Amino acid sequence: MKKGTKKIVSGIISMVLAVVMVVTMLPTGSFSVAADDLGIDIELNSYQINGTSGEQGTIKPVVKYGATVITHIVSVSYTSTDSDIISVDSDGAYILKKEGTAVIKVAAEYEVAGGSSSSVVTLNGTQSIAVTVKKPAGTLNVTPSSGELLVGESLKISPVEICDEMDTATVVRSYSSSREDVATVDNNGTVAAVAPGKAVITVKSEFEDTYGNSHMYTKDVDITVAKPEISLVGGLEQTVEITEDNPNPIVTFKANTSNTNDTVVYTLTPNDATKAELGENSITFHEPGMYTLTATLPTGNVSASIIYKVVKVEKQTPKPTITSSAKEVEINLSETDSFNLKSILTSSEPVIDYDISSPKAQITNDIISFSEVGYYTVKASVSNTAGSANTTIIFHVTDTTKKDSGTISINGADSFSLSEVGATVKAEVSVTEYSISDVSWESNNTKVAGVTNGIITANGEGTAIITATIPNGQYVTFTVNVKVSSLEIELNQPVSSIEVVSGEYYSENLKKYISFKNNNGDVNKDLAWRSSDESIVQVVDGYVLGKNPGIAVVIAYTADGYSVSFPVTVIGKPELSASVTEYTVDMKDVNAIAGFGIDLSSVISLKNSNEVITYETSNNTILDVNNSGFVTFKNVGIAYVTAKAGNEKITFTFHVIDTTVPEPIRIVYTTNAEKSFDMVLGQEPKDLIPSISLVQDGVLSAPEVNSENVKWSSDNEKVATVVNGMVTPVSGGKAVITATTKDGYFVTFSVNVLVKPTVAFGFNKAEVVEGTAVDVAVKIAPEYANVTYEVELDGQTADTSTYMLAENGDSITFTPLVNGNFIVKAKVTADGTSFSKTAELSVKSLKDVDSITFTENNKILYTGDSFDLSSLVLWNGGTSEPYNTDITWTSANEEVVSVDKAGIIKAKKAGMTVIYAQSYNNKRAKITIEVLQQLENIILSKDSISLWEGESDDIEITPVPADADYEKVEYSSEDDSIATVDASGEIKAISGGKTNVVVTAKYTDKNGNQATIVRKVKVLVKASVKSVEIRTVSTDSPDTIYSKKIGDKVQLKAVITPVNAYDKKVLWSAEDDGIATVDANGIVTTKGKGTTYIYAKCTSDGYGMDGNGTPAVGMIKIIVGGDEYSLNITPERSIVYPGEQIKFDADLLPENAVEGKVTWSADSSDISLDSKGYATVSPDASAGLITVTATMKLVDGDEYKAEALVYVKTPVKTIEFEKSSMNLYIYEDVNLSPVFNGGTTVPSDTNINWSVKDSSILSVDSYGKVYAKKLGSTWVYATAYNGKRAEIFINVIAAPKSIKLSRHGITCYSGERKNISYTFNPDYTTQKAVTWTSTNKDVAYYDTASKKIVAVSGGTCYITVTANDTHFGNVSDRVKVVVKQRTTGIEISKSKLTKKVGNMFKLSATVKPSNAYNKAIYWTSSNVAVASVDEFGIVTCHKKGKATITALTTDGYGAKCKLTVKKGKTKIKYGVTNVNGLYIRKSPSLQGVQLGQYNAGVSVTIVGKVGEWYKIKYKSGYAYLRSAYVTVLTSTGSSYKGNKSNAVVSSTTGIYTGVGTGFNTEAPKGTRVLVVNKVGNYYKIKYGTNALGTGYVAVNSVSLDSGFKYGIATPSKKITKKKVSSTPNVTLFRTARVLCKTAIYSNARGTGRKLGIVSRNTRLVLNSQKINGYYQVVFSNGVIGYVKGSKIKKLKSLVKRNVNKTNTFIRYNK
After folding, report:
1. Which of 129, 468, 1418, 1685 is the most exposed place for a label (fewest CB within 10 A)?
2. Beta carbons of 643 and 576 less than 8 angstroms apart
3. What is the CB neighbour count within 10 angstroms for residue 1228?
4. Are 458 and 422 in contact (CB under 8 A)?
5. What confidence tens digit (pLDDT) does each residue in 1571-1628 have?
């Protein structure tokens, strides 16, 4: 028991006794103790509490004092150090709560009386309880635990938490995906399948229980996502025919999906039930057209489509025909002017349409009439519903009565080739007696090319003849070939069926087999690839990967629709395995059991291969193995047997022991032995003796390791040798070192010798000639290192079509086929390290000159410049450099440009001429040289100009030098308000003032930089005087001057209008000098009484108010009255508009006169006057003068009158333009003129203030001329004097000058849609509306909705796009569309056959439809060991079994024939060839690959026949010969009876096919022959066995029998059967040396195309006898040509191959 805090005072026994006594004496529950003993004990049932949250219990303490249990009147308390973990009440009841540890303290108190009766003693005790609380156990369950989805599908993960007292309100769940690219999961646990693959969804749940414990659990859900699959049965495209018998054809369809429960949604486009009705699983077609059925899986959004091409098939009408018996007809106008066309035409149709090239001839009722000499082309055409046909006739019309000496000849090339529609070229002619303008030009086919003044323009693909004719009828012609290049591809070499192992890539990239016909494409950029079945074969950029065994077609295609196909057979990867590879054999068993051995074939398994397994032993003194794999044993030791099948092999280890001998010595590894280790070549030997120990009789290391007890061996001494345990590395590789005891026990060590790989070429750099093979020594170390070669050409990876590279062990043969700089890089790899070395070959092309051109068509020089034209010369189109590059240079005009012998030209004076470069063989090129004179200065015709307003004058410039070239001259005015200048330099005076006109000449200097020269012209604009008004200086008034006395002086001034008038001088004068005079300064002096006028007359050179010479004169009235009365009216002159008002005043002079009453009147009712002198002009007043009169009547009855003049003007009531808006083309102008007053009246003031809202878009001058500066829209305003305004909205637009399509040639398949776009020139064109037309919408048309060209059916048409805006005339472009019919299927002649072994037969297949563009068929066999098939469908049965023969189209359609081959016996025949030079072919076709040649007399073994071909045994396989050239023998080898003879070969000799030529075979001494004739020093003989051969032998090598007669056999003598075979062991070919450089021709007549040239001393192998004086030669690149016999010398040496070792001639023309 654990004690409380009790204190015991040792030795005070009496106190204890006293206490006991007290207890017995006191009442229950109280007692008294001594003060020194105050402790009590607390005992507990447990001092630890361990439990789970939620558990409850009660603490039950026992309180003791010493051994006495206190049972009453005790105070006990309980406290918890952490009430969150455990709580306890006052009764000791507790509850376990949160996970953790705490302590419960239990305390007890008891009070007793002390030693005296009045004192109290408190007894105390405490105890502790350790508490450990665990949280409730929980778990997380999820459903489902895993899932499989298709892309696009989803599933819900449902988690369930299990835990006692879980607080559900605190649950927090989260989800995550290990691969969100495969599957995602949201916060609700919904998983969405994204892409195929595998992902793990992790569910995490966190919560608390009611006690506050935190819980966290995770669970993983494995998700597998697969791609949904859907396909439609029937391929990609089908053709459906509507016929009279079946007007509404019905097709059925079916979709295969990866899940049969998938819902498939079908849609048909177009969705028009009147054209086609979509049923549940069928479509009913009503109208022709292109329809697309799409089957879609909504889950995963995958779909498949079939295109149905529905065509209406009409009854066929034969196509029309028309032919002409004459292509050219000569007509002499002196004899006739007409010709009956039907006299030479034959037509299937009654009506013939004609098209003639010139209006100078007419055709009426098939009669053509001519009016002028010339060259005419007539096209005669016929047509019907099936098509059309035409023929062309050329008429050359002359007139012999009009003979003159004029001639015409071609100056330059007479033929041209153009490669793009719109391309141009100039045809050059020279004439005498006439000028070039007299030449008339005609084209016989304007659809191909047109001609204008000798400029030929390509219009379309084809050939046209251009004729240039002079008036006397003489003419010359030019040939124009237009070929629009398209990306057409082809195979550059035959490609048989490609075989690839599943899981591996094909060894070569298929790009190497593809060429572009026009050399205008790049196999790395312009090819796309697809596989007919990607589950079998995948193709990426030409690399083929086998996926699963089967057959598929790989297709390479271009954007133009051209394609080539490769059939690919995928076979399983060969697997060679064995269930047991190590054996221990006891010689005891070998000796005891007869025939004892081990059959390895019983444990070997070979999969996916028909290879024969071979076996070989490493030590035949220990064991032997036969061809079947049966192993027999001879002696004790270790040996290995290797089984091989192709590249696969397995090694078996045999330990041969003998247990009959005494206890053997065994061998074991030591504890620290290295059983395998690496060594580096060159390091010190390694001692293996410390790694082994010998054991005998159970004693370790009893026998000594020495040469007597242990024999050491290496299985590969080329890698490592071992002597007495010392291993020495020899070369890189692996070897097994074996230590064998004399009793046959052994251990092995594996050593890996590492070698740093090296490679070295025989040279680093060399120069060679194109087509020449170069043998390069290559030294590689170690020998087992892997070496690869990379070739670069001019810094880029070389295409394999540019070279040939053959590996020959320790050398390579490299043949460059093009010129350039080749770098051959050899990379060796061994033991994880690599090393590279390069060799450089500079390749020159030594070819004849086929063409010479310039890289530029023209060149611009400045006077004094020089240039080397030889730098622009391009030989043979840039494909090769000729061996003779001599050029003769000439200039058509030496005064403009001179040229020296080296091609250096010098520009002498401005002008244009042609420089010709002519090769040694008269090939000629020309380049146009334009010589420019750089501008140095400009001289203006005037430095200053003086003009009156409205006048114009021109500025002319003179360039310095006079022939200097400049681009343009620009004119501008520094102040357009004074004077303007237009683009031609015309200056127009606008308003008086001074300004400058700036003249800027722009030109390009010699360095190509833009430069300018600026000059200025001073412009003075003189404003003429419009009016003169005289006013008094004192009053500034023009009113009448009243003077009361003689001698008054009045200062006048002349007010000139306009204020900027050029000359303001006036001449003053008085009408009556007796009344008043005026001096030159305008001072008036009164002289006498009366009325007169003072004048001021303008003297500005006669320019007056109207500018026509009428002087501008001002006047003022003066009255000199003294005391006389006079009436004065003001104003005297007024100008008003209708509706305006004037105030008149009348004053009586002199000033002191007594005025009377004034009355007012006017001579027109258009003015009304009131009594106060207010005059109102009627709003309807007419323009004109009105006189207003003031009359004053005095009291004495006198009346005085005064008059004033009023001029009424016509107002501007309205001003407007005829239209509210208009379009104006950019950089063009228009003169605007508004209409006043609706056109009814002309205002007196028609001055207009012109303005524009946005001057950046338009400008307008003071005359209303509007110029469009940039694109946009704005307002132009015309404002009259009274603010009335006309406005017009002008939109500045840009018209197309040309339109260009993005493509000018499209080749595609029916049903395809091709993108096409177009661009305008200028690119800122705003008028972009276009119209599309097709020459044949049944072939193709442009769909405006999709903006694509739709290919409808097979044929050719042109589609034209034309701009609707014709501001610059007809603007159009066109594209040629060639539509090919797609393949829709294939049918095979037999779907099921049974044949016998040895049978050969031909299968045929038909590609559907009949008009399919590509009808190529590829044949494959599923089991070539049973039956093989060649490219022509020839099937050969090899052994019993089953095979499927498949015919494939290039589009992947296939048809199969299931073939069963039964046992059979091959019938063998024998024959002999009966002609020389008979080709041996790989397949039974003239297109079959040539394997060799037989001459006459060669015996052959015939194993079958296919059509006209015999299948024969050839070398280790089979080949084919034309049966017509083989004589079948009636006897066979088994029935050999021998042939008669009459001579015997006396010494071993050659048998020749000719007299001493064509060595065929060798006849040993003793061979019996039949001599039939003698030719010179040779006997003609028959030799051989059944298949007799014919040949020639030297006379001195044959002994004749006695009684010899030609052709008569000696009795009882037969041709020796075993001495010689008529089938030669080897055919030898003569060699020759080239005597001088000579040509290789394409035929044996010397008239064919030159293939190339061989150099002097070239060694040739001759492949034929002399043919027409020529010998046939075969080159290593497959080219066959002919060399003239006189150019070679035959050599005595013979070779076994008829093909020259290298391509020794200069690259031939393709």
Report:
1. 1685
2. yes
3. 12
4. yes
5. 888 877 888 888 765 445 677 888 888 888 888 888 787 765 444 433 333 333 344 5
